Amino acid sequence: MRRFEMNMLPWNVVFGAGSLGELPDRLDLLGYKHVLVLATPEQTADAERIATLIGARAAGRFCEARMHVPVATAEAALAHARECGADSCISIGGGSTTGLGKALALNGGLPFVAIPTTYAGSEMTSIWGMTRNGRKQTGRDLNVLPKLTIYDAELTLGLPPKIAGPSGMNAMAQAVINAKDERTNPVIRSMALEAIGAIAHSLPVVMREPDNIEARENVQYGAALAGASLGAGVTSLHHKLCHTLGGSFDTPHAETHTILLPYSVAYAAPAVPDNMARIADALGAGKAAAGLWDLAHGMGLPVSLADIGIGESDLERIADIATENAIVNPRPVTREGVLELLRNALAGTRPAA
Ligand code: NAD
């Protein structure tokens, strides 16, 4: 076996439908007495439910979480936390709300409990992100890892298929990127492959049978492992392209991952054939990139950049921004290569790899 290093994150995670009921006791174990509940405006009712469940431990609510954590939102949330004397937070929602919890941990030193309701997987990473003047800054800091994460699949029952599908493919992207990269250690790679299998098997079931709680638990399990593989693993060209599109063209986060993933994988394929074969096996497909395209297409998800408002005239600029700094990737990144990847993603045709 080749030499490798392993630095795992201190995850503390509870899985299982109905596990939200343990929250009050868990807060007491953690010693949190004055808890600020965070949510998006759309999930105010979820925040109310949490506040009711934790009773006198609830110090307040802040239901203004927004995509990509604008600095002004993080500052307003921190001011609210100070006003209500919060000693900790609970984030209930998707990656946007988890991201706000991370911002408060980073800027205000407030520990938090994450209760994820999408498949973004942010709660398993120490990666934070904040947006100032339209530019997203990211970094890694152990302090932003939630002190506890509760995955209760019942909370995802309200997730409509149009959010669930891309969100699941966003998780798939985290896992695939780490399964294909030679820099990933073998333990993380095995977690990533397990995630790929769980998501590929159960996400189409969630889309077809929204009330299937077992399928929802499986996708959550896959999303957690996928997030964990991102948290302890690597990023590459795929993430750079997604950040470029999200940051400079305001494309929707999960859909951008969904569309680009098969083409990013096809780009890397010639450099890492063994890892491609493992990914294809985990997907239950003959070829990795084509299998990912089939999965997305089969669920009726977008497969072309045109579906998120990108046109031919945007491609040169995307390639310029994405390649302005060096990127470590299984196959070396060239501007011409990226342009070809983007042209394929615009055409939306099934990759051969
Ligand atoms: P999101 O959190 O913005 O949620 C999308 C919408 O779905 C919101 O309106 C939300 O309130 C709603 N929603 C969430 N759960 C719901 C449910 N169960 N029922 C009904 N509605 C529900 O989207 P997301 O895709 O979860 O997160 C995207 C953000 O997460 C991006 O900013 C991305 O950069 C970040 N992210 C960060 C990391 C990391 O490691 N730091 C990893 C993945 C994603």
Outline:
With about 350 residues, the chain is α/β, with parallel strands linked by helices. Helices cover about 50% and strands about 10% of the residues.
Task: Please give a structural write-up.
This protein is α/β, with parallel strands linked by helices and 353 residues long. The protein contains 13 helices and eight strands. The chain has helices spanning 23-30, 44-54, 71-83, 95-108, 161-180, 186-208, 213-232, 237-249, 253-268, 273-283, 288-298, 315-322, 335-347; strands spanning 13-15, 35-38, 58-62, 88-93, 112-116, 127-132, 135-140, 148-151. The mean pLDDT is 96. Nicotinamide-adenine-dinucleotide is lined by residues 40, 42-43, 67-68, 93-97, 99, 117-118, 120-122, 125, 127, 129, 155-156, 158-159, 163, 167, 170, 253-254.
Structural descriptors:
six-stranded parallel beta sheet; globular; two-stranded antiparallel sheet; binds nicotinamide-adenine-dinucleotide; 51% helix; 353 residues; alpha/beta
Question: Distance N terminus to C terminus?
Answer: 28 Å
Mean pLDDT: 96
Question: What is the strand tally?
Answer: 8
What is the SS-derived class?
Answer: alpha/beta
**How would you characterize the largest beta sheet?**
6 strands, parallel
- What general form does the structure show? globular
Ligand inventory: nicotinamide-adenine-dinucleotide
Strand order, largest beta sheet: 1-8-5-4-2-3
Counting DSSP H or I runs of 4 or more residues, the number of helices is 13
Radius of gyration: 20 Å
Share of residues in strands: 5-15%
Order of helices and strands: EHEHEHEHEEEEHHHHHHHHH
The stretches of 5 or more residues where confidence is low (pLDDT under 50) are none
Helix content: 40-55%
